[in-house]
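Dear colleague,

Following up on Tuesday's group meeting, I ran the structure prediction for the two-component complex that the binding team flagged. I've pasted the input sequences exactly as they went in, so you can double-check that nothing got truncated or mislabelled along the way. The structure tokens for the whole assembly follow below. Feel free to forward this to whoever is handling the docking comparison.

Inputs:
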Amino acid sequence: MEDNELVAACLQGQGEEFRKIMDIYKGPVMALAMNILGNRQDAEDSFQETFIQVYRNLGRFDPQRSFKNWIFTILYRRCLDQLKKKRRFQIAFNKAKHETPRGTPPDTAGAGRGQPLSKEILGRLNPKERIVLTLWANEGFTAAEISDVLRCSSSTARVYLFNARKKIKSLLEKSHAPF
Amino acid sequence: MPHFKLMDLFYRLTPFPSWKAGLLRGHIERCPECERRLASREEARRVLVQVRDVGDLDRLWPAISDRIRGIRPSLEADLGPARDGAVPLRAGWRFAAAAAGLALAVLLTFALVRFFRSPSISGGGIAQGETDQVQIHYVRIDNEPARTFIFKPYDSDVVIVWAGRNI
């Protein structure tokens, strides 16, 4: 069944059809959330919030637009909210503890094996660069498709992608450099 | 300077995303040497979580199902707060910084050119007599004898001495 037919069925009150939508997109959505947030717990929270929001807003989905891109847009915004909340919490926590978490050793062990992106890589890429890189590498999106998700110009998407690719390359080269 | 570093420098100096994207489209994404300095899709996938890595997600469905029960899909969009408002302001600052940088670069270049191109002039002294006569014994430019002209505008105390190379 096509995305638009599933959406129409959900709108007609067939809530169980929404499960099919989730089954189709749960993998890419979770992978994207983990790559943006770098933390499974936060990614699961964003995953749930995203699908609830998708359901709430199904009536406003434009059938001319890609459904996948629409879900990714919602997820991206939820992830940004999550990061903002976390930052606020971290600031409050650091104030309370009177110290900042610095000098932690790089953690690249878990990358690409079901673990979120390493902290070192996350630190080098901002959330927009992370989502752009994930959409480009995992989903095979072009700059124009990425711009549709981020709701920015394709020039801006291209610039984010270039920065992300350059940083990743430099990081990979450093990790393979002989000591 | 290696080719990519030079292009990267151009890229960094370019103030607007649209211009940067033009540089990327026009050169960097087409140039094999530049492309080698960027991570490929394969390399990026090595550091990213893949769909096959996310594990069992069916356990998240009951919580979602509970929360959407009783909710009717709305016609009101609620996609979260718009965050694009900050972009024009940032672009404005970038433009101002780029314009200031450009003006500074032009001034510096002008000053440097003037500094290095002005020849050293040495003169043998100006003797001024009681009769308002000006005499120049010799003028040299870069240790070569130079042609000199003396002007004294009518009704003025100003004396202009012009020295030029002998060609």
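The first helix of chain B runs from residue 3 to 13.

Cheers,
M.
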